[in-house]
Amino acid sequence: MKIYFFGLLTLIPFLANGQYKAENFEAALLQAKYGALLVYNGHTNSFTLRFESKSVEPTDKPNFIKVDNVLLQSSLTPFTQEFDSKNLDNEAQRKLLTAWKAYEKKWVEEQIKVKMTERAEFIDISSRSFLYWSYDMPKSKDKSSVDKQVYLVSICFDQLLILNGPVEKGKTEEAIKEKFLTIANTLTLYPNQTQDIEKLYHELKK
User: What percent of the chain has pLDDT above 90?
Assistant: First the structure.
């Protein structure tokens, strides 16, 4: 059994008009009998994702892992405007997620230099809203190119939790979506509680 640390996350400010400083989270990927546990530990709060899989492997790219040979990235983007994250209703969550998508869409279109073909929907899991979003990548004859990019995004405290990954050639968007939703169903938030990584590591070995 090994303990993997993603280390300090690369965080991108979102809605950057305010002076609010979001909580800083560090991520640790811990091997477990069922696969792996991804722990996000802040100064005050924490949350976890379970990867229930026969194969979970970190990669040489920051925040990227392979789950059953599916490449995905789990990352955080902090809000820089203060809001009451403990009492966000469904409508408020969706407004913030929609604003993030508009921000991200504009940036992506500037990079790929074409108007994207996209699909988006909201999915509620345990009273928490997730934004599922995918878009087509420009056509390419390169065998290593990808057909689409897929995102599943939700709000955890003052952070956006972003699962994303490519739909590689030979794979389907539906399979990636199903994998992301399976992971999202394991999301557990711990308000006013941080995790003892060393203790968790030993518990997961049992």
Answer: 67
176-196: pLDDT as tens digits: 999 999 999 999 999 999 999
Contacts of the segment 118-126: beta carbons below 8 A, 24+ positions apart:
122/94, 122/97, 123/152, 123/181, 123/184, 124/90, 125/181, 125/184, 125/185, 125/187, 126/185, 126/187
Domains held by the chain: number:
1
| Strands laid side by side in the 64-67 sheet | 56-58, 64-67, 70-78, 159-168, 146-156, 128-136, 118-125
Boundaries of domain holding 50: 3-205
- Residue 63 · residue 10 · CB < 8 Å: yes
Residues 51, 205, 28, CA angle at the centre, nearest 5°?
50
Reading the block at residue 88, the tokens are 């966000």
Q: If DSSP codes are grouped into helix, strand and coil, which group holds residue 141?
A: coil
Q: pLDDT tens digits for 76-118? A: 999 988 888 888 999 999 999 999 999 999 999 999 888 999 9
